[in-house]
Amino acid sequence: MEFVLKALEGIFSIVFIIGIGFVLSRRGWFDEYSSALIARLVTAVSLPLYMIVSISKNFDHNKLVAMAPDLLLPICSMLLAFGVGKIAAHVFKIKKERRGIFCTNFFIANTMFIGLPVNLALFGEKSIPAVMLYYMVNTTFFWTLGVHNIVQDTLSDTKNKPAFFSPAALKKIFSPPLAGFIVGIILVLLDCRLPSFLMNSFQYIGNLTTPLSLVFIGIEMSKIPLGEIGFDKDLLLGVAGRFLVCPVCVLVLIPFLPVTTLSAQVFTMQATMPAMTQMAIVAKNYGADSAYAATLSFLTVLLGIVVVPLYMMLVNMYI
What we know:
Layout: H1 2-26, H2 32-58, H3 61-67, H4 72-91, H5 99-107, H6 115-123, H7 128-153, H8 167-173, H9 176-189, H10 196-206, H11 209-222, H12 233-253, H13 261-271, H14 278-286, H15 290-318
């Protein structure tokens, strides 16, 4: 029971920080300009530097190359979950302006701020390489496929929506966070280490990413009358996709894409994490339904208090 409570500390922290943003916003500390500024600061400054630091500190050339074969399971499971999300969006007639967020929520999770402490509590420090491997795939897909789908929500003319590899689409997708991630990978592959003062500066600024993202969610939630939060099919199916579809996709593929037992356990736990907090930031930046994204993020965090321990016990017993 102790390791469950320790693992849930990350979720409790998230709820607390979201609450700060919510309360301060209700007291008039933030206006629409403040919200947009936070979204821009995270996307353009703190998150790119966070990417460079996290990749550079947790991988080296040999480790990255040695673990490359294990990338296949998270890649295939996320693509499968994405496909299920796409089908569900059409079958259940999810609102067009929400479909990109809905589908992204199916295959992208909060694999660092919550996923890392959960796996550390459950499996110890030996789980860190597998945690980071899933995180790499999760991050790559979010800032490419996920962002592309969220951008699609903002384009009303369906006939003229750019293809994934069109110049217009690539210009939007190639965001500062993705650039930071690519720089981090290149530095690792070249065995290049930045000067300590630069890495420390990147670390300080990068550490702003999670708290600012959570405060932003609190601000967005404060704009929605709590009594009017509609638990409609868009929201409920989004939650189901996050907590049911994504981990099941990992479990279904394990017999066909075998990895070590520890990696299988870690990947399954990573797939059960709440929604990625930056999803609401991206929705705000591109003019998508940020209120829906923020509500989905907040609701999955709250439900994670119950769902995550259940998966922790199941994974510990059966994988």
